[in-house]
Amino acid sequence: EAQVTQNPRYLITVTGKKLTVTCSQNMNHEYMSWYRQDPGLGLRQIYYSMNVEVTDKGDVPEGYKVSRKEKRNFPLILESPSPNQTSLYFCASRLQGSGNTIYFGEGSWLTVV
Amino acid sequence: RKEVEQDPGPFNVPEGATVAFNCTYSNSASQSFFWYRQDCRKEPKLLMSVYSSGNEDGRFTAQLNRASQYISLLIRDSKLSDSATYLCVVKGDNQGGKLIFGQGTELSVKP
Predict the structure, then answer these.
(1) CA gap A12, B78 in Å, rounded
(2) What is the pLDDT of residue B79?
(3) Is residue B10 reached through a cis peptide bond, with omega within 30 degrees of 0 on the bond before it?
(4) Are B43 and A98 an interchain contact pair (Cβ–Cβ within 8 Å)?
């Protein structure tokens, strides 16, 4: 089954404690991206990757890092989480090229206290 | 001004009603347009693409007006199961075709 898998799905952590949200897709997609969703703001792109070893900033990259060492994986790293990073995070992937459907992971609820 | 703007609602309608959602976008170079559906903070799922000539999928009709930079979604004969948030999504021509999401319009269909 074609899917995008994120882990953890739910996490409560403390300020400053590094964490990684993993994302894996089994569709051989070139393009992967991370979004955060906050009330009244919709989904905003954090980082995206157009292929292995190619990553770039989205609209709200501050406080986040990513890597793309393999095609299937695109982890999101919070080196020093802060309460304003409390949000719902979605990983997504699609084939390169215009018009291709984007597939989302189920989301990761992250609370930083 | 937001790149993609929607009325956040909520729209509360009775079963069987017809409801219309509107969306405007600011970048005239935008290439592709979509409506996504999102249930209870789950992942967004593609409802339908929006084509220049307008397109229909069962009870759902989408229309695009490039001159006015306006997209619409019409739902006929609303069902309880249509209750969700509807996201207007625009795909740009840069950053690998970045998707830009509206904040979503909440629909609640009541018995």
Answers:
(1) 38
(2) 98
(3) yes
(4) no
For A58-96, give one letter per residue: b (16+ CB within 10 A) or e. bebbeebebebeebbbbbbebeebeeebbbbbbbbbbee
pLDDT of A8-55, one tens digit each?
A: 999 999 999 999 999 999 999 999 999 999 988 889 999 999 999 999
- Decide: helix, strand or coil at residue A39: coil
CA distances from A39 to A11, B44, B98 (A): 19, 15, 21
Q: Which amino acid is at B73?
A: L
List, for residues B4-16, the tens digit of each pLDDT value.
999 888 999 999 9
Is A40 at the interface with chain B, CB within 8 A?
A: yes
CA distance linking residue A89 with residue A53, whole number of Å = 22
Which residue of chain A is at minimal alpha-carbon distance from B2? A41
The token duo for A5 is 């898998």
Continuous segment of H or E residues that includes residue A32: strand A31-38
Q: Name the closest residue on chain A to residue B49, using Cα atoms.
A: A99
Closest partner residue to A98 (CB to CB) among B32, B46, B87 is: B32
